[in-house]
Each structure stands twice: as C-alpha cells, then as structure tokens.
C-alpha cells in the first residue's frame, strides 16, 4: 500500500446507540486506519435512523463526503460499517474516490500481519469470501490492484474477475486448511495424552496479551502498540510459583464488529481456546470502553463454547489509571504487566483459582521413586514437601486436576 494514504472516515450514528459506544467504535476505526498506515485527514459523521438501501447515507451527505475528499486530497474513503456490494458501487460512483468498509480494512491489516502458512491461508480465504459477492462493478478495480489500503493480500493481483476462478481457489484453500486443522488436532491429542495443562490468554486487541506472554515464557512474541499485533497462536511453556508446569498460548485479539468472514476463517485459531484448561482474560483497564470490550470477548468465548472454563480476569495497564478501579468480573486482579512484582502476583493468583477448582491430596513417596516424585512436581501443584528420615521418603501435600491420571496413584 502506498505509505500514508490520505483517508476520509465516515460513520453513521444510530440514534439508539450510546454516544460512548459510537465514539469508541470511531476511535477504533481511526487506530485501524493508522495501523494500516493510512493518514486520517477528515472524519464525517451523520445521525440517521435507517441505512439507505442503495447509498447507505443520503445523497446530500455523499456530496459533502465527495467535496471533503477533494479538498483534503484524500485517495480513500472508509465507512465504519460493512457495506453491501450495491452500496459500495453506488457510493464509489458518486464520490469518484476508492471506497472500502470497516471489514475490508480489518482484512487488509490481517493480510499484512499473517506470518504462518495457516494464517495466510485463513486471511486469503476471508478476503475471497468477502470479495465474491462484490465482484460485479469491480471489473477494472481488480486488475489494477496496485496498492492502497484494502488491496493487500496473498495472490490478489493475479485474480481475474472470474467467479469460477475465485470459487475454485476458495475450495482449494478450504481443503488445505482442513489438512492443517487435522494436523493441529493430532498435535492437541498428543498434548492431551501427556496431560499438559493448557492456559490460553485471551482478550480484546491491544490489551497486553503478548507482553504478558513474553514475560512469563521468556519468549519474543511480537509486541507492539498496534491492533492485531499477534495473529498466529504461539504456545510455550511456563512455570507457576509451585513449580507446576503449564503450556500457555497467546491468541489473536478480539475486536467488536469483526467481519463475519473472518470469524469463520479464524475459527480454528480461536478453537485453541476451547482446548484450554484455564483462561487468562486480559483487559485494558485504562481504556474508556473497557467494559464493552470485556463483554465482546465474553460473548465470543460463549459462542466458542469456552465460557465454562475456569478463568482469571487480569485488569492490565494499572499505571495509566488515575481513579479507583472497580472490577467487573471475579476472580480478578488489577496489575501492570510491565511490573515484575505484578507478574508474580498474577501467577500466584492463577494457582489460587486452581486450588478452588482442583482436588487437595496428601501422598507419601519413597525416596527410591525419584521419577514418581518428579511427576507430582510437574503435573500437580505441590504446596509442601517434607522428607521423613525414619520412613525414607517424602510426604507431599498439594492440589491436582480432578481428571489427572496421576490421581489414582494417590489413594
């Protein structure tokens, strides 16, 4: 895309919508545009009860948008809603400037961010599914996809406007993704057989998930103050204070009004979450709309069928708060993940929450059974360990997952 393309943003406010929600959605559109390296030169909003079926906004407003684009030498107009194929065409005819919508913008950012083969395939699939119904009237547009926001992506420039070609490509990608999903299932099954304890970090985009992930696993996942910095799920090992070992996964950030094609495409990435034993939900407590963001994530977890999992809500970015903070969810903890003491507090809190969920045990292990002792240390939370000389062995007290195979060795 041409660097710093000049952009006019357009948003319609439904009179029933709360002002805060409208503003935060608009700010989000602005940071999405900046993430895609666009330069916002003008924002135009209109209160309007209903969407105009043919042109989304009224004729007069579109003229105003056209003039604003000319005055500001804007090369692109971005609407804060998903536009129908017909609306896109009609607006473009009136404005005589390239027009895209929020969904296309998000797809564009995802296209620039995907690193793994699977991530790239998922983005391409979402882009093609988005493109298919919007082909007519794009005749020339596709062949001259030279650059600019909303035109990024894997094999786009080679795309003929031929629907059959696109449909074939969609079927091909779906087949390849199925193979990846099967591979991942195999991998998950192996992890389950080894009874590795899975922690998934979820949260709204830019809440601090990758920062937390990097600090607790000593890894270098991509960390940036940008929306969707992480697209491909990473899994690494982490140790809790008791010595208990867990696998932790960093997931893609959620966002409100995610394009439907994307939710479908990222289903398999998000399904990592449903496989987890525990969820750490990161919330940017300093964000004015954090309650809405928290609800967006909880709704998505519900849709994925992961709402029943034990969860700790971590209210992050404490250092940016000026007033007293009242948490919305429990159990929760309020921290700044950049603070090493706070990091330890989170890990202790995870253990606390687990103790509530797990079974308490006492077991005696003879000193000669070193391997068994090691298993208990790795797969359970050992809270005390005493060596008894007279009995030549260790008395362990701790907590263990109710379904862990080690449990039958206790009684």
TrEMBL record:
<comment type="subunit">
    <text>Monomer. Associates with the 50S ribosomal subunit.</text>
</comment>
<keyword id="KW-0479">Metal-binding</keyword>
<keyword id="KW-0175">Coiled coil</keyword>
<dbReference type="InterPro" id="IPR032305">
    <property type="entry name" value="GTP-bd_M"/>
</dbReference>
<feature type="coiled-coil region">
    <location>
        <begin position="163"/>
        <end position="190"/>
    </location>
</feature>
<feature type="binding site">
    <location>
        <begin position="228"/>
        <end position="232"/>
    </location>
    <ligand>
        <name>GTP</name>
    </ligand>
</feature>
<dbReference type="GO" id="GO:0005525">
    <property type="term" value="F:GTP binding"/>
</dbReference>
<dbReference type="InterPro" id="IPR006073">
    <property type="entry name" value="GTP-bd"/>
</dbReference>
<dbReference type="GO" id="GO:0046872">
    <property type="term" value="F:metal ion binding"/>
</dbReference>
<dbReference type="InterPro" id="IPR027417">
    <property type="entry name" value="P-loop_NTPase"/>
</dbReference>
<feature type="binding site">
    <location>
        <begin position="336"/>
        <end position="338"/>
    </location>
    <ligand>
        <name>GTP</name>
    </ligand>
</feature>
<keyword id="KW-0460">Magnesium</keyword>
<dbReference type="Pfam" id="PF16360">
    <property type="entry name" value="GTP-bdg_M"/>
</dbReference>
<dbReference type="GO" id="GO:0003924">
    <property type="term" value="F:GTPase activity"/>
</dbReference>
<feature type="binding site">
    <location>
        <position position="230"/>
    </location>
    <ligand>
        <name>Mg(2+)</name>
    </ligand>
</feature>
<feature type="binding site">
    <location>
        <begin position="203"/>
        <end position="210"/>
    </location>
    <ligand>
        <name>GTP</name>
    </ligand>
</feature>
<feature type="binding site">
    <location>
        <begin position="316"/>
        <end position="319"/>
    </location>
    <ligand>
        <name>GTP</name>
    </ligand>
</feature>
<comment type="function">
    <text>GTPase that associates with the 50S ribosomal subunit and may have a role during protein synthesis or ribosome biogenesis.</text>
</comment>
<protein>
    <recommendedName>
        <fullName>GTPase HflX</fullName>
    </recommendedName>
</protein>
<keyword id="KW-0963">Cytoplasm</keyword>
<keyword id="KW-0342">GTP-binding</keyword>
<keyword id="KW-0547">Nucleotide-binding</keyword>
<dbReference type="Pfam" id="PF13167">
    <property type="entry name" value="GTP-bdg_N"/>
</dbReference>
<feature type="binding site">
    <location>
        <begin position="250"/>
        <end position="253"/>
    </location>
    <ligand>
        <name>GTP</name>
    </ligand>
</feature>
<dbReference type="InterPro" id="IPR042108">
    <property type="entry name" value="GTPase_HflX_N_sf"/>
</dbReference>
<comment type="similarity">
    <text>Belongs to the TRAFAC class OBG-HflX-like GTPase superfamily. HflX GTPase family.</text>
</comment>
<dbReference type="InterPro" id="IPR016496">
    <property type="entry name" value="GTPase_HflX"/>
</dbReference>
<feature type="binding site">
    <location>
        <position position="210"/>
    </location>
    <ligand>
        <name>Mg(2+)</name>
    </ligand>
</feature>
<dbReference type="InterPro" id="IPR030394">
    <property type="entry name" value="G_HFLX_dom"/>
</dbReference>
<dbReference type="GO" id="GO:0043022">
    <property type="term" value="F:ribosome binding"/>
</dbReference>
<feature type="domain" description="Hflx-type G">
    <location>
        <begin position="197"/>
        <end position="358"/>
    </location>
</feature>
<dbReference type="InterPro" id="IPR025121">
    <property type="entry name" value="GTPase_HflX_N"/>
</dbReference>
<dbReference type="Pfam" id="PF01926">
    <property type="entry name" value="MMR_HSR1"/>
</dbReference>
<dbReference type="GO" id="GO:0005737">
    <property type="term" value="C:cytoplasm"/>
</dbReference>
């Amino acid at each position: 895309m041409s660097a710093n393309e000049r952009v006019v943003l357009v948003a319609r406010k439904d009179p029933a919508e709360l002002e805060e929600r409208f503003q935060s959605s608009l700010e989000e559109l602005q940071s999405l545009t900046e993430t895609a390296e666009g330069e916002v030169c003008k924002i135009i909003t209109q209160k309007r009860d209903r969407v105009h079926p043919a042109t989304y906004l009224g004729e007069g407003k579109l003229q105003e948008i056209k003039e604003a684009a000319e005055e500001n030498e804007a090369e692109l107009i971005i609407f804060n809603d998903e536009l129908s194929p017909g609306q896109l065409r009609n607006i473009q005819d009136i404005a005589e400037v390239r027009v895209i919508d929020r969904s296309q913008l998000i797809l564009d950012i995802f296209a620039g961010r995907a690193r793994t083969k699977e991530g790239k395939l998922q983005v391409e699939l979402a882009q093609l599914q988005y493109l298919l119904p919007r082909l007519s009237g794009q005749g020339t547009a596709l062949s001259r996809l030279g650059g600019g926001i909303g035109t990024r992506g894997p094999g786009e420039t080679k795309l003929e406007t031929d629907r059959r070609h696109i449909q074939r490509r969609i079927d091909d990608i779906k087949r390849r993704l199925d193979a990846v999903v099967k591979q991942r299932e195999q991998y998950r099954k192996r992890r389950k057989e080894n009874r590795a304890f899975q922690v998934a970090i979820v949260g709204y985009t830019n809440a601090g998930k990758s920062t937390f992930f990097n600090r607790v696993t000593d890894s270098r996942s991509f960390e940036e103050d940008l929306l969707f910095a992480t697209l491909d799920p990473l899994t690494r090992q982490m140790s809790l204070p008791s010595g208990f070992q867990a696998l932790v996964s960093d997931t893609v950030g959620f966002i409100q009004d995610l394009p439907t094609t994307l939710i479908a495409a990222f289903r398999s990435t998000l399904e990592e979450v449903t496989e987890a034993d525990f969820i750490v939900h990161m919330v940017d407590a300093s964000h004015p709309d954090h309650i809405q963001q928290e609800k967006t994530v909880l709704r998505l977890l519900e849709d994925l069928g992961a709402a029943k999992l034990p969860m700790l809500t971590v209210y992050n970015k404490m250092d940016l708060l000026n007033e007293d903070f009242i948490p919305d969810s429990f159990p929760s903890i309020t921290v700044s993940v950049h603070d090493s003491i706070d990091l330890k507090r989170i890990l202790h809190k995870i253990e606390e929450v687990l103790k509530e969920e797990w079974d308490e045990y006492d077991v005696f292990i003879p000193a000669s059974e070193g391997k068994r002792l090691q298993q208990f240390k790795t797969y359970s939370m050992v809270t005390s360990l005493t060596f008894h000389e007279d009995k030549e062995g260790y008395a362990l007290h701790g907590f263990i997952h109710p379904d862990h195979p080690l449990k039958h060795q206790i009684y």
